[in-house]
Specification:
Aminopeptidase; twelve-stranded mixed β-sheet; 2 domains; 12 strands; globular; alpha+beta; about 325 residues
Length: about 325
């Protein structure tokens, strides 16, 4: 089927071709806004705006592309072109920590062209590319109620390994925190990495670890990560801070908050040891919001696995509301037909 969509360079070409960041970025931003507008609004996602800002780099963007700066960019993938415009897209990204794991995202087809098998052809192109790059796993996220997409992915061989709940606290729903009890937390240290690694091994669902094995180096604070932490407020407009809850030399909970100096949503994340669940989540949420107040009472986003219902409930108790559930699916390339 993919063979019928031959690659050409003519402007009136219609069919599949590789994504070209130097000319497709604005067109892709338009498609994403049309296809995902409600979700972008609810989750505070700024991807379309970020794409347009990058596209405005003009000749500098072309130069970076020519020099191969985007060889591992999340802007790789395939588009379905119609008269020079992007009418369908699939983005393919190799994960930095796991060279054998590739992520599929931004699977979108313009509403006027849906139901014509375009998404299937784009997905098969992505699958071929991942196989050619010696990938082991192909992963993606999809809403449980998106039945056409669910059907397509299941037919291709994808299977669920986790489900996550994306919640948002609206800027006008912040509650008074002054009288709230805050947990005993301390700032993360560089020598915490091994205990954080053990905490996550005990807390992350086994099915998720099969697809994304936890690696010790993910928890070490190298020079690059420390520089990013120091320079983040200047160059990215955000600042990330980590705290841990410790008892008898063992880390039982990990709280991470990312405050935004821009209009993007703040983020709150937590990891809690299974033996501590139901005891500390509410206080962790309160502590996270308490810290984020200095960035302004803007929108706050949080994503938790449904395998951790205590975290979901603690967030809802503070006014967070679910904006969408996402099934996390994976396809083992070796098993794919």
């Amino acid at each position: 089927m993919i063979g019928t969509a031959l690659l050409r360079t003519k402007e009136n070409f219609e069919g599949i071709r590789p994504f070209d960041i130097s000319r497709d970025l604005n067109s892709l931003a338009n498609l994403i806004e049309v296809a995902f507008a409600p979700e972008l609004d609810r989750t505070g996602n700024t991807i379309a705006r970020d794409m347009r800002r990058l596209a405005s780099s003009g000749p500098f963007l072309w130069l970076l592309d020519a020099l191969g700066a985007f060889s591992q960019s999340p802007m790789r993938g395939f588009v379905w072109a119609v008269r020079g415009q992007v009418a369908g897209n699939v983005t393919l990204t190799r994960e930095s920590e796991h060279a054998k794991v590739w992520t599929v995202s931004n699977v979108a087809v313009h509403p006027d062209l849906q139901g014509q098998g375009i998404a299937q052809q784009l997905m098969r192109a992505a699958l071929q590319e991942a196989r050619a790059k010696h990938a082991r796993w192909l992963v993606l996220e999809v809403r449980p109620d998106n039945l056409p997409a669910q059907r397509l992915y299941r037919e291709l061989g994808f299977r669920a390994y986790d489900q996550v709940d994306e919640l948002v606290l609206a800027s006008h729903k912040w509650s008074e925190l002054a009288a709230a009890q805050l947990p005993q937390l301390r700032a993360r240290r560089t020598d915490d990495w091994e205990r954080l690694y053990q905490l996550c091994r005990a807390s992350v669902p086994v099915s998720a670890q099969e697809v994304h094995p936890l690696l010790p180096q993910q928890y070490r604070l190298g020079l690059g990560q420390r520089l990013q932490s120091w320079l983040g407020p200047l160059f990215s407009g955000r600042q990330t801070d980590d705290w841990v809850q410790e008892e008898n030399g063992k880390i039982l909970a990990w709280l991470r908050v990312t405050g935004q100096f821009t209009l993007a949503a703040h983020r709150l994340q937590m990891v809690v040891h299974p033996l501590q669940r139901g005891k500390v989540e509410s206080q962790l949420v309160t502590a996270g919001l308490h810290h984020l107040r200095r960035f302004g009472q803007g929108q706050v986003a949080a994503t938790v696995s449904t395998a951790h219902p205590e975290a979901e409930q603690a967030l809802r108790d503070r006014g967070f509301e679910t904006v969408r559930l996402l099934d996390q699916l994976a396809l083992c390339i070796d098993d794919a037909a």
